[in-house]
Each structure stands twice: as C-alpha cells, then as structure tokens.
Fold this sequence. Notes:
The protein is of the alpha+beta class and 140 residues long.
Amino acid sequence: MSSPDAVVRRWFEEVWNKRRESVIDEMMPADAITHGLGPQPLRGNTAFKPFFHSFSQAFTDLKVDVLRTVTQGDIVATHIHATGRHSGPGMGTPTNKVVAFDGMIIARVRGEQIVEGWNCIDFLTMYQQMGWVAAPVQAL
C-alpha cells in the first residue's frame, strides 16, 4: 500500500500532468467530497469530471508541480505550482495567455484513494493573467 503522500503525488502526475481520466475513477470513489472548486462541494468522481474536462480543455499544456507536502496520518497538505497557456475552449474563448499560479490542497486519503479534498487555489491570479479580472493598482 502506498503512503498518503505517494497517493497525492500520483494524483497530480497521472490526472493533471498526464490527463489520464481513468485514474479519476481509480483514485476518487463515488462518495468522495471535493471542496473549493465551485459554490458547492463536488460529490464523487462523476461530479469532479466536468471540472477536470473544462480545465484540461482550457489549458492543454497544463503542468502541475508538487512543491512540497506535509503528511499527518491520512491527511496530506500539498503546495502546488501550475503553469499553462489558456489555449483551448474549456473556459470560454481562449485568450492564449500564459498563466502561473499556486495552490494549497489538503487531501484525506484512504488506502489508494483520495476521499476528501479541500482546495485553495489562486484562481484570482490566473484570471488576472488571462485578462478576465483587472489587477489592482499598486501604490508607488
């Protein structure tokens, strides 16, 4: 059996970097809960897939690097850095802008699966880089 840290690292590599949708079904059970990717928690692998599809189509070259993890029992806190170009239609009209943003994800692991996740991802920075949201004026 893999360590919780190894399970989370595999998730980011297989699901996000290699775009292996089948791994979602393998690593996320039907009763999983995902917080922070919309106004309501996503329940199960079926509810997660539209988010995965949209993001993967929008950023066809998305790369997620796991910068560090901290594990306590079955909980893994993960600091990620993501880069990509908004070149596909998954999130509106492509802007062709390059984005780079960070995120903090806490995952609860059971066996080889992620059963609950709390996502705090800097989508504001991503939206600013895409030109969807104006950056605040900085004082001199």
